């Protein structure tokens, strides 16, 4: 991070990466990442061969290196059918043009961290992906121990969708990775199979609870002494029925016990939320 006592106030500008960035780009990658990239990769980046990238520079540097990269993001298009996440976005086999943008590398040199440079670079990627009608999302992998990057993508509202076991193999050791996605152009799948099952389970749980409570009420009604039942009919039992039939009857809610009202409301909400979710899911299938 920049020294707060220094008078230098950076002026960050974003631009495409160019052939003149080759050496600095390679040096920063070596400094920041545990994996080594081939020279070919950097040549592809600076010449834009299948890779789209953005760079950040500080045009107010005290050392005068005003055009030297201080941050970068490199990306490439992945056809939907070749992506490992076609089950996660609205994939349509008849639309062979559907694609995703994959973030290959993102980095900011130490002195310029926590100034929002990476946020701006990733915003550029999202803007670009959104501008392509056939693009459904931006995705990437982060090694499981890289907490700053995990926090960063969460802050940028990427969704953590998977943990991939033993995804990386670095210096003789395996590491898991997290897969993050940012959906664009309505790319989000309406519901994953797990979400559909959960919605059904929620619905049936609510239904069972309602049955149990009905049975319990019938049983307790039966057990009441005859005089008690008659006496209470005008107050407790009728009011309870009213509450179930008409939840917005304020006089009923006022008279009813909070616990009973809570149950009816929770159950109704859970069931209707579950049904809405199922309806949305089925519509999207
Ligand atoms: C991850 C990285 C790109 C973040 O760059 P940056 O320019 O400092 O990020 P930003 O300033 O845009 O930060 C945005 C948010 O990310 C989170 N964040 C960034 N750095 C963080 C850190 N060290 N610890 C915790 N959270 C962090 C914060 O939530 C931050 O928001 P805040 O400043 O409002 O708290 C940078 O630390 C880096 O280059 N790391 C090494 C390379 C790397 O790991 N790349 C990502 C994997 S490809």
What does this structure look like?
The chain is of the alpha+beta class. The protein folds into two domains: 12-183, Gcn5-related N-acetyltransferase (GNAT) (Aminopeptidase), CATH 3.40.630; 193-284, no CATH class. The chain contains eight helices and seven strands. The chain has helices at 22-32, 39-46, 117-131, 147-155, 193-223, 226-245, 250-255, 258-284, and strands at 12-16, 52-58, 69-79, 99-108, 135-143, 159-170, 173-183. It has a seven-stranded mixed β-sheet with strand order 1-2-3-4-5-7-6, sandwiched between helices. Helix 3 links the parallel strand 4 and strand 5. Helix 5 runs antiparallel to helix 8 (258-284). The longest helix is centred in the last third of the chain and has 31 residues, at 193-223. The protein is elongated, with a radius of gyration of 29 Å. Residues 226-285 have low confidence and may be disordered. The chain binds coenzyme A. Coenzyme A is lined by residues 32, 105-108, 113-119, 142, 146, 148-149, 151-152, 155. The site of coenzyme A (COA) has 19 residues, from strand 4, helix 3 and helix 4.
